[in-house]
Design goal:
By secondary structure, the protein is an alpha/beta fold. The chain has helices at residues 13-16, 24-35, 49-62, 82-87, 95-106, 134-144, 148-155; strands spanning 5-11, 38-45, 67-71, 92-93, 119-122, 125-130.
């Protein structure tokens, strides 16, 4: 797989209304740039299922972005609907990614158990929900970034994907 393309969706009523600056989106852009990824688009939407879902669908189905990261809307507050908007449009879920993120985050703060992230595949895009806190979003990206090239190869069904290094310890049942 060549350069990985990314899109970042910040979900925040306050940032969308320009009442608070978006810090998580730019923090992820910086981290992805250092990783060597290509940012295709960033956007801020309010905590509205329709706007979140429509953006994810457009980035996946029309733009064909490899990795779509969301930041915000994964908590317990009534308006936190990012996981619901995400799961509604996924073709497949990716529970291992969520497990890795939560296990890593729980080592940092017990508040991680109050996060409700979702991850999965739509078409040829991997979509992962991160918390709205900039530090937490970057920490979550650092957990998954090393598997992204192999994940994208597998999603795109590239011929050498099954023989990739990450699979050498995989046992099928």
């Amino acid at each position: 797989m060549a350069e990985i393309s990314f899109a970042i969706l910040t979900i925040s009523d306050r940032s969308y209304a320009q009442l608070r600056p978006d810090l998580s989106g730019p923090a992820l852009v910086k981290e992805i740039s250092e990783f060597g990824g290509k940012i295709i688009e960033t956007r801020i939407v309010p905590d509205e299922i329709t706007q979140i879902s429509e953006t994810l669908i457009y980035w996946s189905d029309v733009l064909g972005v490899n990795v779509i990261l969301t930041t915000g809307g994964t908590g317990f507050a009534p308006r936190d609907v990012t996981p619901e908007a995400t799961i509604a449009i996924l073709d497949k879920q990716a529970p291992g990614i969520i497990q890795a993120i939560l296990e890593s985050s729980l080592k940092i703060t017990p508040h991680a158990m109050l996060s409700r992230p979702m991850a999965g595949i739509r078409k040829k895009s991997l979509i992962v929900n991160f918390p709205g806190n900039p530090k937490a979003a970057v920490e979550n990206f650092r957990v998954i970034k090393f598997v992204l090239p192999h994940a994208i190869d597998l999603i795109h069904d590239l011929p050498d994907a099954e023989s990739g290094h990450a699979h050498t310890n995989h046992h099928s049942g």
